[in-house]
Amino acid sequence: MAEHAHTPPPHTPKVHTSKVHTSLAHDSAPLHVSGTALYADDVAEPAGMLHLAFGRAPHAHAKIVSLDLSAVRAAPGVVAVFTAADIPGDNNVAPVARDDRLLAADEVVFMGQPVFLVAATSAKAARVAAKLGRIDYEALPALLTIAEAKAAHSLIEASQVMRRGDMAELAAAPHRIQGALEIGGQDHFYLEGQISVATPMEQGGVHLLCSTQHPSEVQHLVAHLLGVTSADVTVEVRRMGGGFGGKETQASLFAAAAALVAAKTGRPAKYRADRDEDMKITGKRHDFTANYDVAFDNEGRIRALRLELASRCGCSTDLSPAINDRAMFHADNCYFLENVEIVSHRYRTHTVSNTAFRGFGGPQGMLAIERVMDAIALHLGRDPLSVRQTNFYGPERNLTPYQMAVTDFVADRLVEELKTAADYDVRKAEIDAFNASHPYLRRGIACTPVKFGISFTTSHLNQAGALVHAYVDGSIALNHGGTEMGQGLNTKVAQIVADVFGLGLERIRITSTRTDKVPNTSATAASSGTDLNGWAAWNAATTIRERLAELMAARNDVAADSVVFEGGVVRAGDEVLGFAEVCRLAHLNRISLSATGFYATPKIHYDRKTHTGRPFLYFAYGAAVSEVLIDTFTGEHKVLRADILHDVGRSINPALDLGQIEGAYLQGQGWLTFEELVYDAKGRLLTHAPSTYKIPCASDRPAVMNIHLWRAGDNREPTIHRSKAVGEPPFMLANSVFSALTCAVAAATGDPRPTLDAPATPERILRAVKGSSL
Amino acid sequence: MTDKLRFYLDGEIVTLSGIDPTQSVLDWLRYTARRTGSKEGCAEGDCGACTVLVGELEGERLNWRAVNACILFLPMLDGKALMTVESLKGAHPVQSAMVDLHASQCGFCTPGIVMSLVGRSMGACGTLGADPAEVLAGNLCRCTGYGPILKAAEQVASVPFDDAPVREALQKLHRDTLLVLSYEDPLAGLTRRAYVPCNVDDLAEILIENPDVRLIAGATDVGLWVSKQHRVLPEVAFIGHLMRDIEGTAQGVRLGAGVRYSEARAALADLSPDLGELIRRIGAVQVRNAGTIGGNIANGSPIGDMPPALIALGAELTLRRGETRRTLPLEAYFLDYGQQDRQPGEFVESVFVPAPKASDVVRIVKLSKRFDSDISAVCAAVHLRFDGAVVQGARLAFGGMAGTPKRATHAEAVLTGHPLAPERLALAAEALRADFTPLSDVRGSADYRLTVAGNILKKLWFDIQGQGGDVLGVAHG
After folding, report:
1. CATH at residue A569
2. CA A237, CA A1: separation in Å to the nearest integer?
3. Is there a single domain that holds both residue A468 and residue A442?
4. Enclosing domain of residue A306
5. Which top-rank group of organisms is this from (chain B) (predicted)?
6. Residue A570 and residue A623 in one domain
7. Whole-angstrom Cα distance, residue A538 to residue A542?
């Protein structure tokens, strides 16, 4: 896609160096700022392009009795209308369980589910016509909430239990408390909505330009749906305008629609969802309830914990089993739980199927244990941070509830450093004084740590491929299986490849991700993009370099490993040649300048039946101190300051990593404060646009924000350049905001039982302050 | 009369006729002009990914303002200048600063952010004296957390811009005839018409002849009818360039119906600092640069961003039909939900806001989930006049509590004739339950609204005692 940009980027980037561990600008930054970066909707439309819209069901649960689409077909601009009966192959867009339909066939299982598909000459014509379907439904009872699904025992799979130690300790410890926490969901609100453009190719093939984190899955689903082979379908992704997990499985629906129309009509077809439709029909972060029963000693050290998690998965399986597993994996966070039982219920409801979202269940599990820490501290009247530290993993206390030894624990050191840097003790005393003096404003401060497991917990997904070409002019074309959604993956991988060849980054052309170049890839998800694709690309590049090194070694009669690639030249013995010259020589000597690379994460294994094993290669760590202020008359709050220390190992690109950390914190802050998904009694989402669904804006960023990468950061595991994944872990730094709010509410009420639920909207804060009287 | 719409873009005059008069500038840019730098993120003026700059002559001065192209209709550009991210040719210091400071990640919101910051660097409307976070309140970014963007804004606060060529071009575009655009709408199957009158008298005449013409000033509301509901508006008149006078006297401020929020802010802040702060909380720069005080009143929203405050201050509305004018208290204009006291052919011409006395207490509080660019759950405006220590007159008006912006007459009665005291305010808070039966919706439950409306009154005591404060007013440290 970038290759057919109609105008060259006018802003000339700075000259790059080849070094990893350097803060280079995002490779697309000059294109972003000049408006020349092409997203799927920006590519010039070919003649005859059809625009698509779904006709959607007005029921959360209903049987389709009859379908009359004559008015839709007769509407101006309409070229074709399709229903489930028109799908030649498998009517399925689900990632794992084959239970998501492109178009509902007999039964509708969530409000707004697509029932038919309109193809018209303009987006407006399609959208207007899509409202003209006359469909008779027989409404069926709908389960909308966790509570309703629980009462009806409606599950997407059996409840899971992770257990260790002796739960009799619950009754034996000096203290025991119970409590509950509700945790709201979250819309991804990527700025670029879902979009796919399908172009018919010869012999029934189709090319798809998609905004997806998972090109291979789109390819495979579309092949099955059209009844063609995977080799007939090519999926291309140049960049996304944000993903955050929302384009891991959810892009398939729109891609499948576009592909179906292209295949059926022989014309190119584009599905560009508008914001409202996007928010109404795509899955979100799971909302959870957490119930805890915890026993502890006088210092607040947990003796036993029973934690019951329940989530709203929605109408289908999607990735909910793995997401809820990850919630369980992170319910320990940094704390050793000797006697523990974690139960996880995955409820099926007649709502949109919830899906991956940065953290993938981890944030909900982690927030639950942080609430437990706050509840213990309030109960004992102790500083919550000291309670957290008391419970940290340690040398003799290093086994997770899933029996993996935590051997790389650094949160203790990191938190101690942050506590000093953020002046935690002094500020806490000041806050206490302020709270004692102000008639109605209350402050709160909290320090919460993060330990996040890195690897897909479905072990086979931990693999990646890359394809690197060197051309005779010394330029490098780099392909890998990862997708660029803003995180800077392409920049990092290019840095890795540039480093292998001793070239500047300007010599590396990062191309779009294509399934016909690198096949069978995993989603760019689980924070794994650089870990997996960086190694795969390094392997590919190194294969080529070794061939070049052998050539140069033979010419100069030196050992191949003495050949040096540096500063754009290749040095072998006394001979120094430009990299391009070496490539030309290789070509003349009939040596391949192209190589694939592959990587599979070592060491990991997991038995889901017993919930034991080593699901993660390593852990990423971080901690944040947040300070908040609440108004006990109005329930309003403000996050005043945040101090963050985060471990990214040895950073490949510190600037990009800092960007991930800050962005993740603010996204987490939004999740826990004012991003509220409100449904009506019929299951209709009422907050489906930025007018009603409020993500953080610039003024919500804490006025004081100190973010640092942890200087001592390293990775014991042999990750690429000893870096650590950074996409998801810092999202949970925002748990400190919620804990700080919990403390501020407690300061207002004097009640040791925390009752604040998430998101902490003004209404919820006021309710927590006033008790049930509101 | 003319049927040609003309505007200035990058050194050229663009002339359009036969266009859909409710086509958005964004769609025209992206799909006709193939300038795809401006993005659609929401099509409702809330995300700012489509931010462009519009320049217009006010006398000799060229005023630029950032607006959302997704809810800007093409005819609203008539006689004006348009600047998009492409106009900068990648060479603006804001753009280099954004690259150098790592201020873009996915890049989709970036062109809009660049345009907001370029506007600020040119001293565009609504940016003077505003800190970067305020300038960017209407530009959502989901990736960066804003820090690097704010830093770029601080680094490039002001960049000289030679506006002479634009001024010259716009002088030539001046028009003193009516613009009428006719459009055969293939989807709606009818001929639609748009009028762009060049003076108020023409507007009055058009409305007498055809009272069903839909008036569009800033399009911050009507824009969404089209962009999101796909409503067909058979006949419209664009009037955002009319009735733009602000007259300040010792008695108060008269605002023409076409005065935009951002333009009214200084004059209203002079009347009451709270009123100025309220305007800062309405929409964001792009919305305040488009939305008008008159349009906000005329559309009769139950929240009514401005009306609760204006009612509390005793504002009077002037309506005009043909050559006939009448004046009524603003609260009398709002009859019921979706129903206003406006006759066929009549339009809002101006609103007069009386100046409070120095000894009056004026407190305006807006509560919303997010501070910037959010709609009130409750907006409360309290205006108390004293005779010594005794409350002589109380005007309490609320938005979000009823089908219209409405006064709290029971609570007013409780306060009137007594010295202000915590017990009185608690009684007044209780009396609100007789004044209002609010609804529950996405912005708050009925319970929350009633409780918090009362709490605003109770909190007033601490304000008056100098012990107040709110979360926005307290900085860290």
Report:
1. 3.30.365.10
2. 8
3. no
4. 288-457+608-773
5. Bacteria
6. no
7. 6
Residue A146 in domain: no
Task: List, as ranges, residues 624-683 from A with C-beta within 8 Å of B.
Answer: 627, 629-631, 633-638, 640-641, 655-656, 658-659, 662-667, 674, 676, 678
Considering only the beta carbons, identify the residue of A128, A441, A637 that sits closest to B187: A128
Shared domain check, A588 and A511: yes
Is A71 part of the contact surface with chain B (CB cutoff 8 Å)?
no
Residue A5 lies in a domain: no
What is the per-residue pLDDT across B435-468, written as a single tens digit (0 to 9) for each? 999 999 999 999 999 999 999 999 999 999 988 8
One DSSP character per residue, A140-156 reads: -----SHHHHHHTT-BS
Distance (Å, rounded) from C-alpha B275 to C-alpha B379? 12
Q: What is the 3-state secondary structure (H, E, C) of chain B?
A: CECCEEEEECCEEEEECCCCCCCEHHHHHHHHCCCCCCCCCCCCCCCCCCEEEEEEEECCEEEEEEEEHHHCEHHHHCCCEEECHHHHCCCCHHHHHHHHCCCCCCCCCHHHHHHHHHHHHCCCCCCCCCCHHHHCCCCCCCCCCCHHHHHHHHHCCCCCCCCHHHHHHHHHHCCCCCEEEEEEECCCCEEEEEEECCCHHHHHHHHHHCCCCEEECCCCCHHHHHHCCCCCCCEEEECCCCCCCEEECCCEEEEECCCEHHHHHHHHHHHCHHHHHHHHCCCCHHHHCCCEHHHHHHCCCCCCCCHHHHHHCCCEEEEEECCEEEEEEHHHHEEECCEECCCCCEEEEEEEEECCCCCCEEEEEEECCCCCCCCCCEEEEEEEEEECCEEEEEEEEEECCCCCCEECHHHHHHHCCCECCHHHHHHHHHHHHHHCCCCCECCECHHHHHHHHHHHHHHHHHHHCCCCCCCCCCCCC
**Boundaries of every domain in chain B:** 246-354, 361-464
Q: pLDDT by residue (tens digit) across B403-424?
A: 999 999 999 999 999 999 999 9
pLDDT tens per residue, range A279-304: 999 999 999 999 999 999 999 999 99
Domain covering B361-464 in this structure, CATH number: 3.30.390.50
Domain end, chosen from A242, A264, A281, is at A281
* Buried b or exposed e, range B226-237, using 16+ CB within 10 angstroms: bbbeeeebeebb
Which is catalytic among the residues A277, A484, A728, A763? A728
Residues A658 and A562 placed together within one structural domain of the fold: no
Say if A46 is an interface residue toward chain B (CB within 8 Å): no
Residue A148, domain member (yes or no): no
Residues A254 and A274 in one domain: yes
Q: Same domain for A562 and A660? A: no
Nearest CA to B289 out of B85, B156, B38, B120 is that of B120
Beta-carbon separation of B375 and A34 below 8 A: no
Q: Are residues A224 and A367 in the same domain?
A: no
A193 CB near a chain B CB, below 8 Å?
Answer: yes
What confidence tens digit (pLDDT) does each residue in A195-211 have? 999 999 999 999 999 99
Residue A568 lies in a domain: yes
Question: ipTM score of the complex?
Answer: 0.97
Statement to judge: residues A301 and A356 lie in one domain:
yes
Has A575 been annotated as catalytic? no
Q: Which residue out of A33, A192, A695 would a mutagenesis test of the B interface target, given it has the greatest number of B Cβ atoms within 10 Å?
A: A33
Does domain B246-354 bear CATH number 2.60.120.230?
A: no
| pLDDT per residue as tens digits for the range A509-518 | 988 999 999 9
- CB neighbours of B268 closer than 8 A, spacing ≥ 6? B253, B275, B276, B279, B353
**Which 252-291 residues of chain A touch chain B by CB within 8 A?**
274-276
Tell me the chain A residues in contact with residue B38 when contact means C-beta distances shorter than 8 Å: 35
Q: Give chain A's domain count.
A: 3
